[in-house]
Amino acid sequence: MSFLSIGYILQQVANGFILGSIYSLVAIGFSMIFSIIGLINFSHGDILMLGAFSALAFITALHGPIWVVFGMVGVVGFLIGIAIERVAFRPIRSAPQVTGFITSLAISSLIENFGILVLTAQPRSFNIPDYLNGLLNVGAVSFRVIDAIIVALSTTIVISLYMYTKYTRMGMAMRATAQNIDASRLMGINVNRVIMIAFAIGSSLAAIAGLMWGAKFGQISPLMGFLPGLKAFVAAVIGGIRDIRGAVLGGYVLGFSEVLFVGLLPPDMSGYRDAFVFTLLIVILLIKPEGMLGREEEVIK
Amino acid sequence: MLELKGVDVYYGKLYILKGINVSVKKGEIVTIIGANGAGKTTTLRTISGLVHPRGGSIYYNGKEITRESSNNIVKMGISHCPEGRQLFPYMTVRENLLLGAYLRNDTNAIKEDMEWVYSIFPILAERQKQIAGTLSGGEQEMLAIGRALMSRPKLLMLDEPSLGLAPIVVDKIFDVIKELNGKGVTILLVEQNANMALEIAHRGYVMETGKISLQGSARELFEDEAVKRAYLGG
Ligand SMILES: Nc1ncnc2c1ncn2[C@@H]1O[C@H](COP(=O)(O)OP(=O)(O)OP(=O)(O)O)[C@@H](O)[C@H]1O
Ligand SMILES: [Mg+2]
């Protein structure tokens, strides 16, 4: 295939879409939690890891259809989110922001080390049923069945979640709590419950993204959550961290630019992809400190 | 209807409310006046369950609510229109009003009440789709009051509704307060504008550095020399 042919570029765009779909899901959870309680949750990526391992366990043990596995992993993430919020974050709710930040680092290292202890640090291969590896061709672009599932599922989740926050009672309560927590209490909103649900949904999406990550890259390890967690943070920040739409946009921008960077520049530079991601963060924040869809008064300091 | 008995409130180590006694009877307009930092806002926040007292107790219709959570307190019919309005700035006027009715399920009655709020403040009807943060100060205050009404309160607490508003808007808001009271809503009003507050109130309390220093009928307070000097401008 000739370098820089249209087909090649389209192929890279498709890859960007797939990666962006995964980043978006992780970034949404990150920004949901941040917007509601101002917590930068560094353990978010580790929930992705837990999701990936539970997915592997379900796939190996059940041989069931993939959508069942997706559903079960989502439930696992949901419960993990509730547990972490209850045990770690609720007790420090009224403490200064930095306490939450440090707590999340502690949880992260706890989960990672527990993972290494139980599973060893050795990466494992993440094998998915053969039919999911089947190739689909659309014009010059080819991708696997699982890739199509990743994009379709992520899009469906994003749209449903947007509708959920926009039109349901709990969704309204979430937006209200993010905007003014005391006023929300005065409306009779049970703020503790809203926070719990935000953790649950955010963690559920991270766990599902863990399954997608394993399926896309074929390998998982207890330390795999670090980079996607950090990148989701970057995605949320460049998109504008207070809104689902910002997180999704940031996720796709990141996915596309990363793939294009690796795909279009000479191969010996692809080792710099992560450095590139963080350079992109700095550049975007220099131009628009509140993020692409952020509001001016919400610059993160 | 509402009774605070020896309520002590601390913010951390700071002793803010020092054993205050306040009572509000059904159908009354009661006002709390006092200098900046006296503890008026803290009193309302304590009743609403945003802060909990360390000592003393609060009763509502005979039931102790000292440690109740704020959502239960709203459920019981107490609505708090907070100092500085505290709207949801990125939501529309309509969404703010709907959040005022958050605990209600009677969709049709909610619609009626929204129309009722729009009839009290017609400007809000014109601005239904406008983002609350972009309203003028007076419109924001009207929205805050409207939102507080959407829970159909039996007791409405207002914290300095006249703050920073033009006289004509203040008049309008005080008219509305009187009208609501006429319809049976009990009112607890915190005000800097002691003149106007005592004019519409039945009874009043004067608060000084966390204590009730004086109480009586509005008339008594109006004629009190110390109150005149300190809060009525001569
Ligand atoms: N969150 C807080 N933490 C610490 N101190 C507080 C807090 N909120 C209020 N205070 C203090 O409590 C005291 C009473 O404040 P409060 O807001 O109740 O006064 P206020 O009578 O409403 O005054 P104003 O008329 O200026 O609104 C003040 O000294 C204030 O500094
Ligand atoms: Mg005050």
Main beta sheet strand tally, sense and closure of chain A:
2 strands, antiparallel
Uncertain stretches of 5 or more adjacent residues of chain B: none
**Rg of chain B (CA only):** 17 Å
Distance, first to last CA of chain A: 46 Å
Class computed from helices, strands and strand pairing of chain B: alpha/beta
Brief sketch in words of this structure:
The complex is a heterodimer of chains A (301) and B (234). By secondary structure, chain A is mainly alpha-helical. Chain A has helices spanning 6-37, 44-62, 66-89, 97-119, 145-167, 169-179, 181-186, 191-217, 226-239, 244-264, 273-287; strands at 124-125, 135-138, 141-144, 219-220.
What does this structure look like?
Chain A has 301 residues and is mainly alpha-helical. Chain A has 11 helices and 4 strands, in the order ααααβββααααβααα. In chain A, α9 packs across α10 and α10 packs across α11. The longest helix of chain B is centred in the last third of the chain and has 16 residues, at 167-182. In chain B, α3 packs parallel to α6 (137-149). Chain B has a 6-stranded mixed beta sheet with strand order 6-7-8-3-9-10, with helices on both faces. In chain B, strands 2-1-4-5 form a 4-stranded antiparallel beta sheet, with helices on one face. The A-B interface holds A 169, 172-173, 175-176, 179-180, 182-190, 295 and B 48-50, 69-71, 74-75, 79-80, 82, 86-91, 95, 98-100, 102-103, 147, 151. Residues 11, 14, 16, 34, 36-42, 83, 192 of chain B line the site of adenosine-5'-triphosphate.
